[in-house]
Amino acid sequence: MKHHISWKVSLLTAMVSAAFSVSAAVVPENARLAEVQKLVRGNDAEVATLDPANAEGLPEMHVLRDLFEGLVIQDKDGNVIPGVAKSWSTEDNKTFTFYLREDAKWSNGDPVTAHDFVYSIKRAADPSFASANGWYLKLTKIKNIQSIIDGKASLDSLGVRALDNHTLQYELENQVPYFVAMTAHSSMMPVHKEALAEYVDKWTRPGNMVSNGAFTLENWVINERIELIRNQQYWDNDNTVLNQVTYIPFESQTAAMNRFATGEVDITSDVPTAMAPKLKKEQPESYTVVPLLCTYYYAFNTTKAPLMIRVFARRCLIRSCGMLLQTVLLR
After folding, report:
1. Which CATH superfamily is domain 69-190 in?
2. What coarse category fits the chief subcellular location reported for this protein (predicted)?
3. Could you tell me the pTM of the whole model?
4. How confident is the model at residue 326, as a pLDDT?
5. pLDDT digits (tens, 9 = 90+) for 124-156
6. Which one-letter DSSP state was computed for residue 143?
7. CATH of domain 1-68+191-290
8. Whole-number Å distance between alpha carbons of 157 and 169
């Protein structure tokens, strides 16, 4: 199945090659930078959480990729590139060793170490934490992670260890050639152990959060805005162009488009379908369509009428879904 999502980019954003992606900006040689390096992004909705281990939706991912950085990240073309890990190695696709940057730091100046990653993955896998991304972590095939999440094995048996402060090793149960790419997911990002211990369930609030990405959390007004400022401790800060990123949640595509049209928003991630042809024709420099790799599923309640009592209704539903799938695949 193919699904497309539209991104609208203002001239300001295009000029600065803004770091709204998950890698540092590469400014074209002849580019003229805006005097104020501030980006305002329309987000699809209010974020449900800023805890990487529990984030599930795109609104959360947009913000978290600015705040936190995993072992690897992605460039603007979706290629896996070094993040906190400057390199990695494996001989059998079952044991992966990551070599961390010595200059990677948290926003409070503490060094980012392999122990941070061990703590964070164990926290996410802990059944008492009940991460919303437990299903994803099971797919990594890290040794014993499924049994741990299911409460059948101890956290100490998890196949991850810090060989030293800057060397991290994962042991998998099966060969997973794409494991390195999987470490870019938010559930495998590091969190600051001391900040969580001090602030407990309030650690994601402004003033409490300690992050290791290109930006830090400055302000968060629920259903109004999230403001991030440049993280001066970030290892690649010299190549960060923006000084501030503001996320504004929009439940309505039309509202987001109107704010973009008036210049209040520099970029938004979706537009009303009916407006797409007009935008493509009248604003080709600002309208871009990119593919989004994703999976959709629908769960039907078979415990209530008519699906519970009418076999015919269930058969019709199955046939309709089959016809829809064939239509999509033939496109």
Report:
1. Dipeptide-binding Protein; Domain 1 (3.90.76.10)
2. other
3. 0.82
4. 52
5. 999 999 999 999 999 999 999 999 999 999 999
6. T
7. 3.40.190.10
8. 14
